[in-house]
Write the structure tokens for this entry.
Amino acid sequence: MVEQALNAEMMNPLESVRWQIRRAADALGLDPAVYEILKSPLRFLEVSIPVTMDDGSVHVFTGYRSQHNDLLGPAKGGIRFHPDVNPDEVKALSAWMTIKCALLGLPFGGGKGGVIVDPRELSPRELEELSRGYVRAIARFIGADRDVPAPDVYTNPQVMAWMVDEFARIKQGNEFGVITGKPVAIGGSLGRTEATGRGVVICVKEAARRLGIDLQGARVAVQGAGNVGSHTATLIHREGARVIALSDSHGGVYRPEGLDPRQVLDHKARTGAVHGFPGAQAITNEELLELECDVLIPAALENQITAENAPRIRARLVVEAANGPTTPEADELLFDRGIRVVPDVLANAGGVTVSYFEWVQNMYGYYWSEAEVNERLGQMMGRAFSEVWDMHLKQHCSLRNGAYMVAVRRLAEAMRVRGWLGHPDAARR
Ligand code: GLU
């Protein structure tokens, strides 16, 4: 299967996640039905969303919601607003959520949504209309006990607030647990905004400790300055690491002595981009990935580390803050070169873990302090990291394969006891 992966580079994320699940299921010797059940979403919805634009014209946007799996609980996962959104990407992202939630031991399945749009080109009113229209289109499929959306690329707490408000209008009553990542003013959890970045930093620390990398002064390159990249960079800088490069979709900045991420982000807030930050060298996103550093953190989109550039990656450790940044072929090449990769399904699981805390708080109507949220996040991420680490040592495999084995084994056990894998005596009858 490795040769199969290396023969044709898998740039389709759905093929990647299928390959990853299959490899783990095969290594564990599971019933082939486990893979068949996980290879496609249980339910996939395509919707059209008409929006009256500011110039009076009507534009019809296309959106999707994929409910990959609800074995362990309601489907769970973000909503992405991006021009490149497509059905296979949404399906893949929802499958990664199934793995992520199972790995962290959350009582959730996997889901994901997306709308084909560049939200940076919309006015705030148009964005609100689109957000509300999307929820109207999927309202009958979501709910606190069914499918719980959250933010993803180019969506944020404000978008979640419009969505939860629209849902309340449809249902004629509040149901705050239907969406997570909300503003704190309407049932959001303290610590949710930074949670993904905080989880990434927990993984960097856990991996660095085991690999003998001293985080003090360690050179870290972060690709992406959205919610995840910006909090990751800020928090890791606070831990004493040296953030030597940071980028956004326009390009990056590099300073071997280290950057103060807050200053770079202030510059981006003022000018719209990180480039042009005084005292730093301009680099492209491709160059950032190939910098010599201790820790490389891709925190943008899929397919950044490929068979083409993997031989030139010069990091000791890669921690995947984005979903799917490394193709399976690149993953093999990094593994062969001894570069450890903390996989997305573990590294960026801090976001959905605090989403789970938010959902629990909404159910109880009882809210936790930020310290409590962060402490529980640390415990859950630390435990998941150890399980993955132990599995990869036991199986002599990559951390990614180890993570999939932990998650897929848990999912297979749920399938077995629920009777999804057939009757144990069936073969004899
Ligand atoms: N979009 C985030 C992810 O990919 C968070 C999902 C959530 O909180 O449900 O994990």
Observations:
- The pocket of glutamic acid is lined by residues 76-78, 150, 152, 180-181, 323, 348, 351-352, 355 (CB under 6 Å).
- DSSP finds 15 helices and twelve strands in the chain.
- The radius of gyration is 21 Å.
